[in-house]
Design a protein that fits this description.
The protein is α/β, with parallel strands linked by helices and about 240 residues long. It is built from nine helices and 14 strands. It has a single domain, classed as Ribonuclease Z/Hydroxyacylglutathione hydrolase-like (Metallo-beta-lactamase, Chain A, 4-Layer Sandwich), CATH 3.60.15.10. The C terminus is likely disordered. Bound molecules: zinc ion (ZN) and fe (iii) ion.
């Protein structure tokens, strides 16, 4: 099994999950052409689309991929199925469900907040999780449909995954997220170091995906909401969910 990030649109990441038998699932195809090119480059055959949520920058490519290959399995949360929010969805999933691609198994984690039907896909055996717009490197998604307590609970569930778990997130927002983190917690060495490292990587145009749960516990203000340094300045703490 291997995971291949595919940049889409201006700052989105889709991902190919390629099983050992050469079949692939694509997570969050925001547009079709880069996915088709990546599949050809990797010599993989598309078998499924796994959508973390219904926003167009994550499912904008579904229609074209389905037009070329009508037999694809399209997975999304039951909320998005019941509200008709993902074109061509063939399989609605709920928290705790397992989906499979060859020998690869992904567990569904329902994490409402950014949207009500947002899910993460946790590949426990591969120590990897796809978090869409719920958990970013050093940040989290905006609250379009849920509220702050809902998002906090969702993030806490992701924070409880094994620390070595690689985090494959939906947008390249890492540098600006770390600048915000350094503002809220100026005296945390892990954040200062991460900001320097990520700034250098972005200057070389390198992607920052994946992160890890361990890195996020050390640097992400939204997973550190109970850290004492978060409460040094009440006004900054109040900015946490914006
Ligand atoms: Zn979104
Ligand atoms: Fe998005």
């Amino acid at each position: 099994m291997r995971i291949v990030p595919v940049p889409c649109l201006s700052d989105n990441y889709a991902y190919l999950v390629i099983a050992d038998d050469g079949r692939a699932a694509v997570v969050d195809p925001g547009e079709a052409p880069p996915i088709v090119a990546a599949l050809a480059r990797e010599g993989a055959t598309l078998a499924a689309i796994w959508a973390t949520h219904h926003h167009p920058d994550h499912v904008g490519g579904v229609k074209a991929l389905l037009a070329a290959q009508p037999d694809l399995e399209v997975v999304g949360h039951v909320y998005d199925r019941d509200h008709g929010r993902i074109t061509g969805l063939t399989r609605g999933v709920a928290d705790g469900d397992t989906i499979e691609l060859g020998k690869v198994r992904a567990r569904i984690i329902h994490n409402p907040g950014h949207t009500l039907g947002a899910i993460s896909l946790w590949l426990e055996d591969e120590a990897a999780v796809f978090t869409g717009d719920t958990l970013f490197a050093a940040g989290c998604g905006r609250l379009f449909e849920g509220d702050a307590p809902m998002m906090h609970a969702s993030l806490q569930r992701l924070a409880a995954l094994p620390p070595e778990t690689r985090v494959y997130f939906g947008h390249e927002y890492t540098a600006s997220n770390l600048r915000f983190a350094a503002h809220t917690e100026p005296d945390v060495p892990a954040i200062t170091a991460a900001l320097a490292d990520v700034t250098a990587r972005r200057a070389r145009n390198e992607p920052t995906t994946p992160s890890t749960i361990a890195t996020e516990l050390a640097t992400n203000p939204f997973l550190r909401a109970s850290a004492p340094s978060q409460f040094a300045d009440r006004r900054r703490a109040k900015d946490t969910f914006k």
